[in-house]
Queue: 2 jobs
Job 1
Amino acid sequence: MEPALSGGPGLDGAGSRDTGSRPRVTTPATADAGSRTARNETTAPVTGSSAAVGGTDRTRVRRLPELAVHDRATLHAVLDAGRVGHLAIADGHQPYALPVAYARDGGRVLLHGSTGSRLFRHLAAGAPACLTVTLLDGLVLARSAFASSMNYRCAMVLGELSVVDGDDRLAALERISEQLLPGRWAAIRPPSAKELAATLVLALPLDECSVKVSAGPPDDPADDLDRPVWAGVVPVVETLGTPQPDPRLRHDLPPPEW
């Protein structure tokens, strides 16, 4: 899978490989992802909207460059389809990667954490960071371990985060909530002043990004095609399960529908 921009081997194989004519998917995986894309286009200032995706030396895809996708619509679609990203930061000589809920809001990504978090305070002070979002679409089962891989869509965003304050902070928290569970914000109690004081909201502009997409069947070499081994793609699909009510639920209410 290799969301990294360059360097050593990933699950695509131990070295360079023939990617054949495997297609690149440049549309959202679901209609829901597409609707979120459309809804988010005008909700915030579109910082970085004119910057080319993968257009800097740090974001140029060096390994399997044919899998790089450069249009901003695909970047938005990948971010809108995800719910969890990984935010990497170096604290001295020690790197950390934090799993975070996030939401794209126009030309930026919104995140939130505790004001008591040392790493979030470090980010708020302008420490450089890297956010990655990876969507696993399928396991590509080839006739050899070397040629086996994954179908995926991944985005990487580099930059410095800024603090979201004032009325914008509450709107940002609503945007994150709506990314995770659309429509939920209107039904729940809004954050109290104490809860807001304990919450740090940060914004990462989509100024320096890359997108990589892999899709399609295995790329077995011709001399492996006669091997009696099943080959193909096993799709991986994320679904929401049956809601489980809180044992302390005091009202006879139907579960939400998503």
Job 2
Amino acid sequence: MTELERRAPLGSVKEDMLEFEGQRYLGGRASDPRVLGWMRGAPPPEDKRVTFESDTFFEHPQNRWSLSHMRELGPTANVWRGKGAPSQFERRDMSAEIDALSFTDINGRTRRFDEALFDTYADGIVVLHRGRIVYERYFGALEPHLPHSCYSVTKSYAGTLAAAFVHEGVLDESKMIPHYLPELQGTAWEDATLRQVMDMQTGLAFTEEHGPGGGSGDVRAYRVASGRRGRPAGYDGPRTLCDYLRTVRKQGAHGELAYKTVNTEVMAWVMARVTGRSFAQLLQERLWAPLGCEEDGYILVDPAGMPAAGGGLSATLRDLARFGEMIRREGEWNGKQLIPASAVRDILQESDRPANTPDGWSYRSQWWVPHNELGAIEARGLYGQVIYVAPKAQMVIARFASHALGPSEYHDVITVPQMFALGQMLRG
């Protein structure tokens, strides 16, 4: 392991507690799996095991281990890196400058860059500037070779592929979903266009609620049907992802942004139907092998083998950075155009269009657009997963985390200004 890859020191874990919504949680140092001893021993003691059967693997602090070991908690499909040698990054070590970077969080508190990583439960971070690795750190259970859950960053991979197929003429974004999937006639998507699905502009009777422990209500029902959560005794509901999608009904009108994970599953189903290739195969053929990824990725699958495009991908941090850098280069990688430049520009240029959320963000082809001075777009996932592409700073940040709570509101107060401040520094 190089100096840039060195594992960040734990420091003191005494009195390391953080508070959210009046509830106190172990902080980034005290919840480290190495400190707590999760899954250590032969076999691990019962009180130190993280298992699917316990149904607590999304809970804090167990999630500090499980998000780096999702393959051990459910069935997956491999995303092969291919036979070629991995692509190489040049390096320029800026660790000292970046660690010492001072910024002000949304609440007005001054923070150091390195300390803020612990305060947001970071598992690892890679920063690219002009394609070079300038900063790389690993915490908790994560290692450079170990895939970590991407959660909804998976959506941005899927959205990028869908945008590519639209710009290549393989898909028609104006077509209604039943044109591709007759099975969804009579569901919420029977009068929704593919573009509305790609941009999360559908009216669905589905509540996207992610509370402590991995979600409840509709989110839990969707995960139970997909086999990603345990099924209670006597369960007689849908038993595959596609079966569940057939149960979703319309609520309200299409045309306004309403973030619902099930839209991504429909979009990926369309791609699979039209191409004859699963989402896992498309990732391998269009991205993993052409990018020269260092490691295989993997993705959670349902009992019928359908990949979970809404949040099931796991990848290594550097391979996440490769994808982000390809987006910054408008789809080009080492002299080859992997994704049509027009498809990527359509996403990047969302910064020039009016925002469509109350807090000034937009959403295009499964990417978040903050409308900031860096022209940034973001892939974002539960518990703190991020790809931050800032073209005007020539910067990409790939970040994995296992926050005590899933929704981004609990870490955005720190991470949004932290990433922006780094972009401003590198922009010079």
